[in-house]
Amino acid sequence: LISSATKSLRMETEILEKKLQDAQMKLAEKDGDKEKEIQSLKRLISELEFQLTMEKSNNESFLDKLRKEIKHKSDELEKLTQERTQLIHSLSQVQEENSLLQDTVRRECEERFELTAALGRAREQVLELRRLSGAL
Question: How far, in Å, CA of 27 to CA of 38, rounded?
């Protein structure tokens, strides 16, 4: 009976040892798979970090270009604003001069009209005097 029980326990022990070895092999395989997955994820993380660094660098470069362009446009706008102010000032001076010249021309035309009228009257007086002197 003891021999049979011992034999039975040995067989059961062997079966359990075999199951333990199988479980350990499966566990080792799973550990290997997990290690491979961890390494793969680490590589993926490294690649994504590199891409992120490149994107940050590109964005900073792009922002620098935009800042320079904004500065250039701002300077250009300031220059154009100054030119516009100078042109408005020049236009104002030219309009003032034009107004002055128009007044001068108007006065000279009035004087010419008055002189022409006076000349006409003087001619009439000369003609009248000639007629009178001719009649005498």
Answer: 16
